[in-house]
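Appendix B, record 7
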Amino acid sequence: MSNTYENENPPLKGWKSAPSSPSLAESHRSMHIPKSGSYLKKFLAFAGPGYLVAVGYMDPGNWATDIEGGSRFGYSLLAVILLSNLMAVLLQHLSGKLGIVTGRDLAQACRDHFSKPVSYALWVLCELAIAACDLAEVIGSAIALNLLFGIPLLYGVLITAVDVLIILLLQNKGFRSLEIFVIILILTIGICFGVDLFLANPDMGKVLTGYVPKAEIVTNPAMLYIAVGILGATVMPHNLYLHSSIVQTRKYDQTELGKRQAIRYMTWDSTIALTFALLINSAILIVSAATFHVNGMTSVADIGDAYHLLTPIVGTTLGSIVFAIALLASGQNSTLTGTLAGQIVMEGFINFRMKPWLRRMITRLIAIIPAVIVTALYGEGGIQDLLVFSQVILSLQLPFAVVPLVKFTSSKTKMGQFVNKLWISILAWSITIIIIALNIFLLVQTFTG
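Structure tokens (predicted):
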């Protein structure tokens, strides 16, 4: 396997060596892309990885910021959701392109480029980010189980460990089964919020104007804080590692034409999938604005409060039930991709391979232990604070993934003829600076109160 892989992916002169072996070896190049047929047929064969990436942009960590943004400021922060999504589209395009062109994922690229101590440091930071993300999924799923079935949060946290069995079953059935399951959950979330949007009956004129940026977003400190929180919860660092690996599950031609076609299909796949994420994140904020803000409830920031307040406002329990079902689907969806990302970064940064079930169990235990302790000691209030803290940890890690990604894809020696065009490099570095500056602002505001 190793020799074949090296022959297919000879090192460009900007790299020290060829990739020694692929990440997610059990799924690498396992899905054939037809050489003949329509563009639609080829695209459908390539479609899938984008949806695994998109779930990170609609996970429970996004819900709190979207709910608070809608309840406090109405539709005004829809512009921030749109801007965050556009940033994500470009960054995920660069991530997928890195994997397709070089035959290595972002973690492997970092290991090749940086010294061993730096690679180990980046790995530790990334593991913290994945654990923090998994923590958000644990909490989100536990809250959903509590809202739907009255299961105490502590027991709900423990029940989430069972999803290990679901993931193992899907992985054994092939990567396509995993993608289909994720797409079904995304559709579930979309349908649930479609119902809530219908029940909330928002002012569509105000919704459309909400996507137009306003100076107040920057000049109003309270609005800016929520806006940065939305950005910090939207662009997920582990998604950049994930995407650069899972695009390689497709068996495309290792020629210039084959790679260019793969990049085109990958970009369409991730852009369409992230558009779904944009619509769902927008729907969360719109439902909050149309139900809470319009009725003078401008301090709703808690997911549980949002659930309980929906019923009396929309006039039926259906709104609350589908809200909780969407939350449960969101938590389960995101935990699947967190598992894959954990496997990818461990194999990529330190070249250490572990059985997927063991890797999943370790990741989940790292998330469950603090959730159990905080829930037992501080109850529901503590669990909400822990959810916010998990997003702060993700914000800390983000620059350590974005900077190497933009650096590598902007390098002619590393990417050859596939190097970023000048305008893309300028735009990518501008986005990187904005993300770093806004995340520093968020961290300072978080720790200074």
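Remarks on this record: The two ends are 53 Å apart (CA to CA). The longest strand covers residues 31-32.
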